[in-house]
Each structure stands twice: as C-alpha cells, then as structure tokens.
Amino acid sequence: MSLEDASLDIVPGELLAVVGENGAGKSSLMNVLYGLYHPDAGTFLMDGKPVRLRSPRDAIARGIGMVHQHFMLVPTLTVAENVVLGREPTRRGLLDLDRACDEVATTAKRFGFQLDPRARVDTLTVGSQQKVEIVKALHRGAQVLILDEPTAVLTPQESDELAQVMRGLVAQGRTVVLISHKLKEVLGVADRVAVMRRGRTVAEVRAAETTVSALASLMVGEGSRGAALTGVPAPPGAVVSDARDAQAGLAPLDAQDARGGTAASAPGVFDARREAAATAASGPLDAKSEGAGTVASGPPVLDAKDLRAKGDNSRPALQGVSLTVRAGEIVGIAGVDGNGQRELAEVLTGLRALEGGGGTLLGGPLAGLTPALAKARGVGHVPEDRLARAVVKAMTVEENVALGRHRQPPFARGPWVDFKGRRERATRLLATYDVRPPDPTVALQALSGGNQQKVVVARELDADPKLLVVVQPTRGLDIGAVAQVHARLREAKARGAGVVMVSLDLEEVLALSDRVYVLYEGRVTGHFPRKDLDERELGRRMLGAESDHG
Amino acid sequence: MGERTRQVLPSVLSVLLALAVCWLTIALTRDADTATRAYLQMLWGGVGNWPAFLDGGSATAVLRPLGEAAMKAALLTLTGLSVAVAFKVGLFNIGAQGQMIWGALAAALVGAHVSLPGVLHVPLALLAAALAGAAWSSIAGVLKLKRGVHEVISTIMLNWVAVSLVDNWLVIGPLRAVAEGHQSSITGTAEILATAQLPRLLGDSSRLNLGFPLALVAALGVWVWLGRTSAGYETRAVGLTPEAARAAGIPTLQRAGGAMALAGALAGLAGAVLVLGTEGRYPGSLGAPYGFDGIAIALIGNNHPLGAAVSAAVFGILRAGGTRMQLLGVHKSFPELIQGFALLFVAGRMVWLAVLRRRREQPAAEVPRA
Question: Region Disordered: what ranges (chain A) (predicted)?
Fold first, then answer.
C-alpha cells in the first residue's frame, strides 16, 4: 500500500483527523511522518524548513510521537519502566527507578492522566495501556502526537475518555493527529478532517462544516463530486497505486504544498500498477451490464439467521447476522476490514464456532458445523490467508490439489494414496487453470502467489461445491490472474453454485455480485439487490452511516 | 541439484565434516598416523576386519563386529524413528528415553512372567513394550492437545519421572528379581524366559538378532505409512500447516495424538529390543541414553524414516568400533563426539537454509496495508 501525491498540512495546536477506507494510505502517510517509511519523492517541511526523517528516532527527536494500533509495551514491566524505556534515568550507572517513577508521575499529572507509575502494565485495562503509550510519547517530548486507529481496541466508554484526553492535549498546546475510519467519532472530536482516498489526500474540511454522510462520500469517492472537490480525479480502479509521486507534508507552522512520500518497494510497483489496471478493467460499469443477465432464482443453499460469534480477541465479531444465498448467485459481502466478514466466512466453513443463532446450510443445521462436515455437504472455501489456511506450502502442488478430498477417488484408493489418479487429476487441473509451471511435482511454495491462488481455486471448484465461500479472492494477484479468478467465480455461479464473496475491494464486489450485504461492526447495515446497487450508498453503509439516511 | 540430493547431501557432508574434525582433533593431540590408525580400528570394529578375514582369518572377525554394529543400529533406528515420527506432525519428542524405559520394563515383565511358545512370546513382549511406550508418550500428547503444555517440557519431565519410577524404585523394589537358589540379583528384574529371547540370526559367533531386521521393517513401515497412506499424508499436513489441515477437514488433534503415540510405541520397541535381544532382563538401570541419541539420529537423518535408519547404521558402526580405538590409547567416546559434531553441523545447515529461504521469500512478502 502506498501513497501517491498525498499532501497534508498540520497546524499546531489542533486536532486533525485523517480518515479514509482501508488501503487509502492513512497509515502509510503516518509512517512517513514517523520516519518508518521513506518517501520516494516529495518534500517534508517542519516549521518551514525541509526535513529528512531517517528513522523513528529522528521523528522523536523532532517532537513527533506515535501511538500504534498495537501497543509497543513490555507487559511485565511497570508503567514507569515502560515510559522511560530507552532513556532511563540512572544513578551511578544503575537504573534509578524512584526518579523514573517521579518523572512519569509528573508527566502524567501535567496532562491529567490517572496512572500509577508502579503498576505492572499487564494488570492494566486496554484503555489504560493506551494512556501509558500516550504518556510515553509525551515524556519523550512529543509536540505532535499521532494516534493510529486508537479506538479500534477500546470500549465506547474508553473511547469517550480518550476523546477528552485528546482535547486536553490540544488545550495544552500539543498537536494531535488522529487516524480513523469511524466518522461519527471523528466529527465529535476533531477540529479539521483530512480525507484520503487511494493514496491521495482528496479533501481537507473543518469538522464543524461537514457531516458523516458528506465525509463518507468523499472517502468512497464518486466520480464527479470527488473530482470537483479536489480537482484531482482519481482513476476509477486505482485501489493500489505506485508511490513514486508520493507526497506528504507536516507543517506545524506553515507548509503549503509540502511534499513527502512513502517507500514503495521497487519490485512492488509494477505489480501494483497491473493490479490497479485489472480492477479498473472489471470496474463497475462494464460489470454491471455483464452480470445483470443472470438473476438467481435457485433454491437457498444458505439460510442463516441471527448469527453470533466471537472474534479472535474474544470480543463479539458477529452480532446477529442474517443472510440467504441461493443456488446460482454471487452474494457479495462488503465492509471495511474487521467488521465481521472474516468471522462470517469462518462460521460458514465450520472453522469458527457459533455463539448464537443458526439456520440451515445445504440441508443441514449451521450450528455445530465442522470443516469436515462443511466439506461433506459441499462447501468450497477460498480463504483470505492462503498460506496459513488454504495450502501446505512445503508439499507438492499435487499434494495440495488433493488436500481436503485426499480420502476420495481419484486421490485415494482405500487407505492408500492413489498416486496415479492424483497425478492425472492434478495435471489436468493445472492445464485447465493455466497454472505455471504446469508441473504437479514441484513444491507449492515454488509457485508465484497468483499461481498458488489458481491452484486453490482449481481445487475448490473441481470439488463442484454447492456453496462456495471466497474471501479476498484476488488480493495481491496480477491482472491476468484477477480476470481468471473472476471468470471462474462466474463459472461456478453458472454451474449453480451459491457463492459468498467477501472482499474489501468495492470494485470487485460491484463487479461480481448479484446481491450485496454490507457488514458494519458485526451487523448487516445494508442489503442491496443488484439493480439497487449504488456505490455511494454502499460506502456510507460500510461506514455505519445507516441512521442518517433512510 | 535434485530435491532428493538437496535433502541428503547436507547430512552426508555433516557426517564427513564431523569425521574430519575429530580426525584432526586426534591428529593434533597425538599425531596424524595414530588418528588414521584409530579410525581404521574403528572401522574394523564396526564392519569387521575384512582384510584379515580375506587373508584367511576366521569368519568371526567379520561377523562379530557386524553383529555389535547391527545391535546398536537397531536401537538407534527405533529411537530415531520415534523422534522423526513426532517431528512429522510438528512435535519434538525429547521423551524417547522415558518411553524406552517403560517399553523395556514391559518387555522384561512379559518375557519373564508369561509362559508362551516362542512364536507368540516374542510378539507379545514386543506388543507390550510398544503399548507401554505409547501410553507414556500419550501423557505428553494429551497434555499438549488438551491443555497446551509444550511437549518439549512435558517429555523431558516425563523422562525423569520414568527414571525415578522404574530405575529408582520398581526394579530395585517391588519388581526386583527374587533370589532363586544360590543366585540372587541385587537390582534388576528376573531373567526373561528363553522363549522370549530375540532369536540370534548368526548363531553364537555374533550377537546379531531379530532386533535389527525388526528395526528395518519398522523404518520401512513408517516410511510407507507417511508417504503412501492417506493417514500419513494427513499427519504430514498437520505437521506442516496445522490451520490448513484443519480447514481441509483433517482431524488434527487425532493425527497429532496418533503420531505421538506411534512415537512412543517405537521408542518402547527399542526398549524391548534391548531387553529381549541383549540384556535378558531389565538391568539395574537402562544405561546408555539411546533415547536421547534418537534425537541426533533423527535430525542427521533429516527426519526421514529411511534417513534415520541410514544414520543409525552409520553411527551403530562407529559406536561398535569405537571401543577398538582404545587399543591405540584413543578414548572410546570419539564416536559420540562425531555424532555430536554431525548434529551440530546438520543444525547449522538448517539455520543456513532458513536464512536462504527467508531471503527468497522477502520480495514476495505483501506490502503492508494502510
């Protein structure tokens, strides 16, 4: 992910929010400001002078602090030990813990934090740990504090408290940059909002003068309005852009047209462009006309009611999701990353246990589903994390083709592996799906990502699934592979499979889906048949803007 | 370089390098001539003094050393297999020693106290040993799968439990041989019956017994199971990528538990081969740590069942011949030193491969998402 021509002005003593979809470049831009990424082009002015940040150490020295989404704390150390880590006060060469505690207590008090410097960090709540991170940054003299998705891990009460903390910091003359995609929250706390889309900053507005729905439109970006506002029309499919012309600027005092940028690794650039082009090629316009012909009317293969499940962090990830999928249709699941899509796919494939709700899946109950049971009923699965879930990379391609059906013909005869049958089937599939090299005996890890994905898709479709659950099926693939995977999904649909497609790529959802459900915080916030699909409305629902629009 | 060569070559080179390093050590502390002659003695001691035999010496000069080597190789093969099988499912079995102890005890008890014809007695004693080893390793298996206890920790601890229970209590206490007539043993269980002895294959001139072919059959069996059956395929999949195996509907816990039990059974068989083949009873203590040697054997054999058998054969030969080095005043522990160095170099290769692999993977890594 990267930046392309992104500019940002940061005015001292204000609370600036940076909003954008996943992959819009928010975190990349902040990592540039914090010295983690190095710009390929563009300039970076501080107090009017050009600055080069080689590392976070440089950034810290210049008064920039960052609180990452995942805390960088040592759980078994105390608050004070964590805060002073790296610049510990010493006495005769030994750590002076008392002084550390005093210093930390002073800093905390100055900014109004309730923190016991001697408490062990692992005994603190997440909200308090976040405060430790903030105090750590302030203790190092941060004038500008960057908070990356700080409320993602907080309860609503903690979020309110954090809002007060941020306002308090601004009142004391510090500058706060808040990265978020929660628009309501942002409007409640920020002075100014910068909107990013596809690696660019497309708008900067005063929080008081905008609405959730206006921001949502800017984030999703619908052609004319977005262009009119910014004067820079983003190309229609450029989800991934190369960062050669990245720009970013940080200017506590004044930095009009300051330029910075990010480090896009050189090898990625070519692929990224091709991917952008690929997505563009299957963009909404041609796709709509193409897919609209076949409207599904088959029997339901999935009828899920009120699904509830916990996420990996044991917080509720699905909070009552109901959906139906019929044979012969592709149902898209849209949403910003982390709103329950992954957990939904896992529930449907038996990988995640239900906490509540149920329904039927291919003639059997959805409750108590296991991966083996799901397979037996005819569920195919193309998971998001290919290397962890879909393949055994150290095994050969043919062994991977057999995975999941390895106890059935043609892959097995009784308890024995059927080497001949497996070889034949694998060879045929590799040819059909144009996997390169078409050699079933090489280790899967020797294949490129796109070809690995083709193997997975080939395997799952070869099983002739009645319900196919695909998650981010084209992430990281090049143009040819993307087109092929899309064609295969349409093929599965034509063969009468019900397809559930989770994708963070709105273009992809729009291109392929007959119907779209929108997930937001584990709930369905929108359900659109194809004819009612409206990119802008979809985007607003993805951001939880359900209430202020019918 | 073919895939097979790439798997075998590092192990072969590691062993050769270890041999060279140890030769150099002897040459530097003594002299080059002594080192070479000591190595020759080791070789004759392991594979037999062929020149002397061909010059008209007795067949014993060849058969005896070969028998000793095969005996040691059999034990190393079985414990090596034990470690390798667990490794295939992603578990590190440090507990072959403890599993072997229980296998040896079970074999000794069945061998001494059950009365059966030889055709049945030996298999029954072997079965008892395998079950005892499997039961012991399954404790670690269940702890791992149900409670998440790391198997390295639990198997190491279970080794000590086994030593304490068997060596320090059972065989000097309740299970100690009861004095018969004028004979009375201070420690150890009763002598096994003649029907339970593993038959010697070459008569009295060599201690080569059924244990060696048994170990080879075990190696072959594990190889076939892992490579040619669906259950073995599932086991490997679980070991390589557990989440993918789970998503594919493979019963991962069952596979891991099964592999751990098999590992224990193989180590238990090693105990049986020791007791039924050479010791004749469970001695006061099991002595040589064949269970721990199994770790080295498995790793040098690249965790491949046949690789383990080959590496066990090599080190069986070196160890059988090692005692002969003393004739030249060279300490007999050199074979173990060679084994240690070989393991070190093999481990070094793994580090090296890991570094290379990481380098290769890096360009393909995904760019972090914003």
Answer: 275-300
Query: Is the confidence at residue B58, as pLDDT, over 90?
Result: no
Q: Supply the CATH number for residue B353's domain.
A: 1.10.3470
Residue type (1 letter), A339: N
Query: Are the beta carbons of B364 and A448 separated by less than 8 Å?
Result: yes
Q: Which domain holds residue B154?
A: 3-358
In a domain, B57, yes or no: yes
**CA B218-B220-B224 angle, 5° bins:** 115
Residue type (1 letter), B241: T
Q: What residues of B are in contact with residue A346 (Cβ under 8 Å)? A: none
Flag whether A122 is in a domain: no
B245 in reach of chain A (CB within 8 A): yes
d(CA A204, CA A102): 41
Instruction: Give the helix ranges, DSSP H, for chain B.
Output: 3-29, 32-47, 50-54, 60-88, 96-113, 118-147, 151-162, 211-228, 230-240, 242-247, 252-274, 290-300, 305-322, 334-361
How many folded domains does chain A comprise?
2
Interface contact flag, B229 A372, Cβ < 8 Å: no
Tell me the residues of chain B between 192 and 231 that have a Cβ less than 8 Å away from chain A.
Answer: 227-231
Q: Do B370 and A25 touch (CB under 8 A)?
A: yes
* Chain A partners within 8 Å of B234 (Cβ): 406
Two structure tokens written together for B196: 């339970």
Over the stretch A354-401, which tens digit does the pLDDT of each residue have? 998 889 999 899 998 999 999 999 999 999 888 889 999 999 999 999
Chain B's closest residue to A407, CA to CA, is B230
* Domain annotation covers residue B134: yes
- Choose between A543 and B194: higher pLDDT: B194
Q: Identify whether A424 is part of a domain.
A: yes
- Chain A closest-CA separation from residue B346 CA (Å): 20
Claim to verify: residue A238 and residue A167 sit in the same structural domain: yes
Residue B210 located in a structural domain: yes
Q: With contacts defined as CB-CB under 8 Å, which chain B residues touch A421?
A: none
